[in-house]
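Example S7 (structure tokens).
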């Protein structure tokens, strides 16, 4: 079916094409006629605003803004913006914040015209931009954390290097070595923060590389504990590993990273005391546990500490370094292996972090 337009152009008017485009559109589409009554409300608009087309067709724009406004975080301002945008001559774009569930919506208003009618009505394209907004928020949080966390070690490196380079002071050899040691430690801290950020971005993108191979958990635990023993004088380590441990099918470098992280936290966040590292076989998985004798973690934070950038006490954490990424990376790594990680804690008595990894079907006893 062809419709001859005034300009001489022709437009295919097979209704199914129009219907299919409107039906398949990933954006919500609302069309208002010249009297600002709803003429079209596509399925995506139904989803976004949780209102069926049959309830909206023929409704007055003010009534529609009333419905939408009722779900907006700031209802009055949302209604006023929508009313203004509908009356404006130029195409306009507004953003709304809706609740239950929390979402960000962009609404782009445009004039509906035809070659023979310049004022056919008004169209509104509606998009759910929640993911974009969340990504923006994550980026700004990342930027502020990165700049804050990198600044502290950088300032320290710069300060000690400048001090060493002073020509008017002669430092004895021990002082020089002390200053150089601090520069070395702070450089390690910078490297760790950057590594954490890279791991985090891979986990976020679902692109964490895991190279699984049959590995001996027992040897790895011993190695990491021996390494960490050297880092503290205030803590002592107790290992409780069964004589027989099945091999697991996992990425040794990543499992080492998780162990390292949990033991490092047990050192960092406790004044001293015993750190127990254990391993048990439970059905088809091995469960590794790291217990400390620190102050413990209040129950309202036992899930939150696994969120990226979350630090229980900003000030004390800052004192010991870290960007609040260690546990969220550990969770990302364990989950990428099909396992799980959690903490149990008693205030004043200490915390036990555990992670479970599946024993591969092909496992063989060590
Ligand atoms: P960071 O990399 O800054 O150490 P993590 O993600 O490893 O961050 O830890 C998040 C928060 O969890 C820390 O800021 C700390 O407050 C808390 N936490 C982690 N491990 C322990 C622990 N063993 N005892 C008490 N608090 C802990």
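Recovered sequence:
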């Amino acid at each position: 079916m062809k419709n001859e337009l005034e300009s001489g152009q022709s437009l295919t008017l097979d209704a199914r094409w129009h219907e299919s485009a409107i039906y398949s559109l990933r954006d919500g589409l609302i069309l208002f006629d010249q009297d600002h009554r709803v003429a079209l409300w596509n399925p995506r608009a139904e989803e976004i605003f949780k209102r069926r087309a049959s309830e909206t067709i023929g409704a007055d724009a003010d009534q529609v803004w009333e419905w939408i406004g009722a779900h907006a975080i700031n209802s009055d301002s949302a209604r006023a913006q929508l009313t203004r945008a509908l009356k404006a001559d130029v195409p306009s774009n507004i953003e709304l914040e809706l609740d239950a569930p929390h979402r960000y919506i962009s609404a782009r208003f445009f004039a509906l015209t035809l070659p023979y009618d310049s004022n056919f009505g008004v169209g509104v394209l509606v998009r759910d931009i929640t993911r974009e907004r969340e990504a923006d928020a994550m980026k700004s949080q990342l930027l502020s954390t990165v700049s804050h966390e990198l600044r502290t070690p950088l300032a320290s490196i710069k300060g000690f290097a400048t001090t060493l380079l002073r020509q008017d002071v002669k430092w004895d050899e021990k002082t020089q070595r002390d200053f150089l040691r601090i520069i070395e430690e702070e450089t390690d801290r910078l490297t760790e923060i950057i590594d954490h950020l890279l791991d985090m971005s891979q986990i976020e993108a679902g692109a964490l590389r895991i190279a699984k191979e049959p590995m001996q958990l027992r040897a790895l635990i011993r190695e990491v504990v021996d390494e960490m023993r050297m880092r503290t004088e205030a803590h002592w380590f107790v290992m409780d590993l069964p004589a027989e441990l099945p091999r697991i099918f996992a990425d040794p470098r990543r499992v080492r990273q998780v162990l390292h992280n949990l033991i490092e936290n047990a050192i960092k966040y406790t004044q001293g005391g015993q750190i127990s590292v254990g391993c048990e076989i439970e059905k088809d998985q091995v469960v590794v546990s790291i217990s400390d004798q620190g102050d413990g973690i209040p129950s309202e934070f036992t899930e939150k500490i696994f969120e990226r950038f979350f630090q229980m006490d900003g000030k004390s954490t800052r004192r010991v370094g870290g960007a609040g990424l260690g546990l969220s990376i550990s969770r990302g790594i364990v989950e990428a292996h099909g396992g799980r990680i959690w903490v149990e804690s008693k205030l004043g008595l200490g915390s036990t972090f555990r992670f479970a990894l599946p024993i591969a079907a092909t496992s063989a006893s060590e």
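Notes on this example. DSSP finds eleven helices and 14 strands in the chain.
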